Inverse folding.
């Protein structure tokens, strides 16, 4: 084997010494004294190893040392390739990722079908110009060429705006020189998808903070619009709250408008578009640059709005959660701007969360109104837990029963405040109870009252007992 390797090295040295124009087998045989058929056998061994290649000039073969074996293999015709070369070339050509070979001057020596589909046939061109349209190499391969690293990985944007994942390293060629081999993948969709997930996560986090920190719907909607514009680029936006009983919308927040732009006519156009999206229960999208759109009333309204504000796009999204619609989100972009498909998906993706936040504050406001009604009621009202211990009493209860502070009564059993059968047990058994009883004031005195009690039922069963005491006129004066 050692003797064979010495012969191989002599043949390679002979080809290199003869010159760049290549060497015929007759010229090689003058330097390597072997019989023609023996020399031919060694030459074919070297070719099978990819260390030498040949070109046909007429009927003669001119041999060269292979500086780029892969390039050589792919430039051979199918008839000239060995079986191994055919299999290898098909595998590389059909790989689902790019294979790129460069020399140390950034010249492209080989690229497979994956890359030619993206960039065309760029063999012989400078890598940085063909891929990035620049005069500098931006992907880190320079570090390998300059010997600062054996291998680099990077993610860069090409001249078409695609995101490329590049992993490159240096490899030694059969003639002792070095080339760069790079594996390249177009990861644009993956990066965009990951970006969308990241933005969606961030939006949900911001929405959660908005809901937790907002006390009114106005405050919530204003915060939501600001958070949306921090993540998604748009020029103007509105959130309108829907009243299903009156079938009307009220403007609760807007962003991006100047005072001069606000007109009653434009407000009516916006409400019309928002109501249409609400009635359809689906998003409405209008692009002012698209020709041949249906000239229906909605399209004309959107077109009027686009002309008024110099808009490119109008996007209306109903805000619905659990089948209930709470309003509409309107997003507008100016001329020469566009919402990406991912941005529109994000907006639709968070619309239910926005609706949920609005519903939560509506419910809290409803509870506050009810609580205020309890507080100002002239009739005593009490609430107790399932063990019959008081959890709430209104001011009328304290006044009639003769107590000064809630702390004097909360946590005590209801039975301490009247003479009667076990009202709590009766309510538990029947769901409600109403009857006359004798009540006991703080000072021990007694008075007559009529009590109406019932259970508050939650998803998992009874939560609280609530009762209202109805007094005779003479007792109301106490």
């Amino acid at each position: 084997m050692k003797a064979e390797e010495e012969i191989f090295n002599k043949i390679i040295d002979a080809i290199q010494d003869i010159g760049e124009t290549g060497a015929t087998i007759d010229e090689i045989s003058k330097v390597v004294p072997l019989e023609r058929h023996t020399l031919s056998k060694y030459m074919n061994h070297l070719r099978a190893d990819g260390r030498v290649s040949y070109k046909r000039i007429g009927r003669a073969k001119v041999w060269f040392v292979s500086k780029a074996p892969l390039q050589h293999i792919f430039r051979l015709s199918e008839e000239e390739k060995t079986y191994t070369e055919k299999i290898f070339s098909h595998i590389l050509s059909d790989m689902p990722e790019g294979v790129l070979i460069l020399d140390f001057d950034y010249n492209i020596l080989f690229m497979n079908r994956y890359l030619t589909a993206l960039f065309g046939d760029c063999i012989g061109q400078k890598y940085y110009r063909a891929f990035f349209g620049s005069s500098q190499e931006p992907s880190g391969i320079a570090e390998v060429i300059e010997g600062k690293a054996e291998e680099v990985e990077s993610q860069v944007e090409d001249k078409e705006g695609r995101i490329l994942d590049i992993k490159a390293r240096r490899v030694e060629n059969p003639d002792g020189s070095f080339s760069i081999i790079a594996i390249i993948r177009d990861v644009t969709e993956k990066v965009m998808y990951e970006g969308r997930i990241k933005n969606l996560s961030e939006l949900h986090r911001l929405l959660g903070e908005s809901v937790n920190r907002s006390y009114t719907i106005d405050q919530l909607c204003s915060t939501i619009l600001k958070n949306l514009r921090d993540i998604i680029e748009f020029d103007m936006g509105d959130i309108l709250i829907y009243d299903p009983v009156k079938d009307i919308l009220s403007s609760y927040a807007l962003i991006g408008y100047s005072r001069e732009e606000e007109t009653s006519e434009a407000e009516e156009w916006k409400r019309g578009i928002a109501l249409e999206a609400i009635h359809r229960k689906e998003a409405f999208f209008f692009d002012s640059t698209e020709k041949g759109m249906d000239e229906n009333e909605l399209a004309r309204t959107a077109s009027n709005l686009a002309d008024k504000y110099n808009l490119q796009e109008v996007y209306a999204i109903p805000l619905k959660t659990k089948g209930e619609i709470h309003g509409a989100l309107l997003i507008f972009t100016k001329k020469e701007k566009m919402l990406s498909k991912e941005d529109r998906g994000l907006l639709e993706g968070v619309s239910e969360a926005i609706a949920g936040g609005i519903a939560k504050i509506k419910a809290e406001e409803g509870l506050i109104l009810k609580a205020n009604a309890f507080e100002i009621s002239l009739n005593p009202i009490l609430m107790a837990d399932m063990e019959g211990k008081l959890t709430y009493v209104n001011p009328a209860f304290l006044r009639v029963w003769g107590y000064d502070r809630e702390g004097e009564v909360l946590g005590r059993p209801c039975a301490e405040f009247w003479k009667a059968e076990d009202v709590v047990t009766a309510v538990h058994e029947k769901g409600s109870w109403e009857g006359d009883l004798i009540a006991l004031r703080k000072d021990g005195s007694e008075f007559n009252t009529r009590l109406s009690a019932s259970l508050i039922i939650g998803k998992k069963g009874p939560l609280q007992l609530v009762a209202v005491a109805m007094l005779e006129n003479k007792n109301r004066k106490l």
